[in-house]
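Figure 2 data, in text form.
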Amino acid sequence: MSTAASPRFFDGAAVVMGVSSCGKTTVGEALAAELRAAFIEGDNLHPAANVAKMSSGTPLTDEDRWPWLAQVGASLRGNKPVIASCSALKKIYRQRIIEAAGRPVAFILLNGDKALLQKRIAARKGHFMPSSLLESQLATLEIPGPDEDAVTIDISLPLEEQVALAAKFLCNKQ
């Protein structure tokens, strides 16, 4: 999925973020391939207790999230190009990730219409996050402000366009 405007190499750290079913993994994997970066699936870093809690339909608390966010940030450490997926719903969560990473981290918010998100989450199979938690995630989401290194991309766009926009955003930093 190469685009002429995309770079051949990316040397930073980025998080593809958003609520459940927005496409974090799909866009993150494609973006990492495009930019020749490693991809880290943030869901795989959750402690078992968090997965059990979410699977039962119970939203995580901030206290539940701190160790997980530290793991996500730690996965971004170093000087190699890396992209992770993580909901990163609140500004303080994004700040914790940056602190744990010990380097600048850019954020790519995949955002979209609630009806589209509900349709996607209902169609998803084999994931621990039930559709009942979408509402709490939407209520928790703090859109990154102008003081954050972030871009918002509409999830209704084709995958190739989402990846191209994210790659352009990350490349303009170098």
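Caption note: The longest strand covers residues 106-111.
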